[in-house]
Amino acid sequence: xxxxILHGTVVSDKNDKTIVVQxxxxxxxxxxxxxxxxxxxxxxxxxxxxxxVGDIVRIQECAPIxxxxxxxxLAE
Length: 76
Known about the structure:
This protein is mainly β. Helix content is 0%, strand content 53%. The protein has a single domain (5-74), classed as CATH 2.40.50.140.
């Protein structure tokens, strides 16, 4: 099965080798047909600590690295 890739914005880089990425998705409400925006935060592995707050990054699914980390950060 292919690995999922998501696009998001870095909202935290305070942890060592970890960034928090906020991914926003839009969808049409099933009844009202209005566009709804929802966001979710993912912890991603950043081995070189090269991403900073505000950067737009891609994250790719991977095997669990720690309790919360199941994604790897890729350059946009």
